[in-house]
Write a structure and sequence with these properties.
Strand content: under 5%
Largest sheet: none
Shape: elongated
Number of helices: 12
Structural class: mainly alpha
Length: 269
């Protein structure tokens, strides 16, 4: 008798059921042995599991969350810069004098995005380097795993993630440009940071294999490629090209949208 609506009761029932099955199996094998019958005859098919994964491949179970930290650290590294160069200028009242300078709106916007990209790229480099150093202190060998974060793999991860930094600069800039205060910009950019990990969460729930179509999805494509690098497997260079171009395209679109925003008179309202 059990209450299936009670989570604690369900776990207790599962443990008790497993224990009783093992006890019953042991009793049955003991009775067969007493009658001179090999207990293994009651198991006509024995299933043996042979793990063919590499030690670096098994390490992905622990390092699989690395992409999340790379994404968030990249966005956080430049979010404050994007806010300060957009909403911060409006709040300080320095936007009007800046727009009066002999500089085109497009040059101004691309300059803001460029500075934001530099900060995001530096933040990404620090995060990758931190992982490469920290993983050396993990006792992976004791649990049959090895780290594949060699210098060349770290460079590959950085190059793979770099287009996301460009896209992040565009997204943070366009989002912050529609806000009027620093606090409001922080609120909306924080909401925007939630979007990139969503495709990765779906893949964790429903694993997929890397394909050209999936490389068109920013953040997801970087996650799949970084996972392949950490495993020590070779991926299709075309996938890296598609991922980079698609991600950069999103950043460029956000850049042009921001330029259009700065050319609008509504910016000063």
């Amino acid at each position: 008798v059990s209450d299936t609506a009670n989570n604690t009761a369900r776990r207790a029932v599962a443990r008790l059921t497993l224990a009783l099955r093992e006890y019953g199996s042991g009793i049955g094998k003991h009775r067969l042995a007493l009658r001179g019958i090999d207990p293994n005859l009651a198991v006509p098919v024995a299933v043996l599991t042979d793990d063919v994964s590499t030690p670096s491949g098994r390490a992905v179970m622990l390092l699989g969350m690395m992409t999340y930290f790379l994404l968030f650290s990249t966005l956080l590294g430049g979010a404050q810069v994007a806010i300060d160069t957009t909403a911060g200028e409006r709040e300080r009242g320095s936007l009007e004098p800046l727009l009066a300078l002999a500089v085109s709106r497009s040059e101004m916007v691309w300059g803001k995005m460029g500075v934001t990209f530099v900060f995001m790229a530096v933040s990404l480099a620090i995060c990758v380097l931190s992982f490469a150093i920290a993983v050396r202190f993990l006792p992976l060998a004791e649990i049959g795993m090895t780290s594949n974060l060699t210098p060349w793999v770290c460079v590959g991860i950085y190059v793979t993630m770099l287009p996301f930094a460009a896209m992040g600069a565009g997204v943070m800039t366009i989002v912050a440009s529609y806000t009027k205060s620093f606090r409001e910009a922080q609120t909306y950019t924080s909401i925007a940071m939630v979007a990139p990990p969503l495709p990765i969460i779906l893949v964790v729930l429903n694993p997929v294999q890397p394909s050209a179509a999936l490389m068109l999805v920013p953040s997801l494509s970087q996650h799949l490629l970084v996972t392949e690098l950490v495993k020590g497997e070779v991926f299709d260079p075309l996938h890296l090209l598609i991922s980079g171009v698609a991600t950069l395209a999103v950043g460029v679109v956000c850049g042009f949208a921001t330029v259009r925003r700065y050319r609008s008179e509504a910016l000063l309202i």
